[in-house]
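Changelog note: in this version the structure field was regenerated for every chain. One regenerated record is shown below for reference.
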Amino acid sequence: MNASGSRPDRPYPGPVPDVSEPLTALAEEIRVAAWELAVEVVDEGLREDAVPSLQRLGQVGQVGDMPTFIVELSKELAEPQPGRMRRGGPLAGLVRDHAREREALGFAPREIVTELLVLRRVLWRFVSSRAPGLTGSEVLEAERRLNDSLDQLVAECVVAYFDRATAELADQARRDPLTELLNHAAFGVGVEEELGRARRYERGLTLVYVDVDAFKSINDELGHPEGDRVLRRVAALLTESLRGSDLAGRLGGDEFAVCLIESDLETGGRFLARLHDLVDEEAASGRLPEGFALSAGLASYPHDAVSSDALFRLADERLYEAKRAKTSG
């Protein structure tokens, strides 16, 4: 206790040793040896199959961003800066990008984390080899700074994985499992959002309903697997016919819908002409059943209706008018 009865600021008497100069020199050694240390990480990762996916890559791919990590960690060793390590900071962003790239190459999340744990061992061996030239306080501080930084990198990798997995699950919940188009609910939400933008910016919007003619006959005569294949092919043709900003969804069964952003009925007509041409080409090549055809109905904002419910209802009515015209003709 001090004179005021409170605990002292430090658990031991005397000044705190200044470790800045020795650790700055050690950090510079690590920076200069960054490539060699990165190669050592790869060698240890390959040893005993600690990171099996490394075997599929060439040396540059194996090393990846590891030299950059090591250089950045050397900066943190020399002069810790919370902003460098915080979420959204430069080093945290780098490790997230590294994790995404490794996953794209087929690395399991466990392997990505293992790489960083191997990096910790390699760096600590390097520091231990320099320990005779450092005091006990300097070695402890070096260990603390490196461990804190690497713990944060591992945490960022884990968070990046769960963020991506959560985003993928959220996207899957919006998708029709057969065609991977938006499902009925997600398409409706998307149209409502785009209609709001169209009102704000005084732009047009066109809703297109599309239905496969005589789809029951395809299922009955060719089988349900062929029916599913046809639906997937129709979904692909719809996607090929759209711009990146447009929406496409499967409403259920053999019914599809498209929302053409910043468009009018004329734009919708051109879209349908392009789609029918693609369908004819697919049927002629045998990729769709012989005689395959689609029917469609269009409704445009603000020309035909101003609410999403009215647009959906009108497009649906026009779709069935087109189907009746075919059967009556």
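Spot check on this record: DSSP finds 13 helices and four strands in the chain. The chain has two domains: 20-173, 184-328.
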